[in-house]
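Might I ask for a little of your time on a matter of protein folding? Here, with my thanks, is the record as I have it:
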Amino acid sequence: MSSALKRLITKDRKRRQAASGPHAPSWFESARAEGDLNGLVRDWLTDEQRGGVPVNFQRHLEDPATVASIQRDEVPVPALDDREGYFGKWHLSYWLSGLDDLRVVESCVPRSALNDVLDFGGASGRFARHVALADSASTVTIAELNVNHVQWVERHFGPQVRAVKVSPYPHFPLADRSQSLCVAFSVFTHINAYETGWLAEIHRVLKDYGYAVLTMHSGDTWTVPTTRKNIFASLEKDPTFLPLYQANPTMPSERLVFDYNPGSIEHNCNVFFSSDYIRRVWGKWFEVVEIRPRAHHDFQTVVVLRKRG
């Protein structure tokens, strides 16, 4: 390359940089100080905390095995910022929500599927801690966009639970056929453009006949009254949502995307899928074992997939 051409390329690069302005890191790339921990979950077995437990989690507290797990759990309860604000001051409910998801997964897949688990979007281990408590031989890899969650997991969990930082673009830094199960709770609810790319990555890292348990917004979610829909506030940020919702008592299309930060790569959207879409599109990658709407108190539908051998 001639020196004149090098100078021209350098000049053009500087011009482009000046036009675009300085790069500001996205929220998921910006490390921050860890919030104050909330002790161990057994510290929250109080009458007040028990009184705040949602009705759908109360049955777990009646199980002696749950109380035994609470006593064994030595991983602290994260600060609100380190758990995406879930459940506010109700720390016992936060802990029970992960157990409830484990019970759902256990009802969907054979026990052997929980040997090597990929927890896609697993944050600071809300679900992962329960896999580790249930079986000391299981391992969980949390694949997480937010660097702060990755650092939190590395600080507070033992060797059974580890975390890897991923980008908004489809790739898991994991070996082919290394995982027996992938879970993703309310992740595909917020993935638009790279949906099939992430399905392809899950397919790659799963062992033959491995399972994926993914939750999503479905036609059943669409029919939940807006007064009870905890996603309504974010959906309203897309001006197309409310007129479409009010005019259609049932989901009017097989796939709908409501974007409340247009042009962002930060997954600030809500996506709805019909069962027919799941079978037609996701079924190209996996056997669709089951599409199971959860009880009325939960707005996510569970999709159970199995990798063909």
Remarks:
- The beta strands are 116-120, 139-144, 161-165, 179-184, 206-218, 255-259, 269-273, 287-293, 301-306.
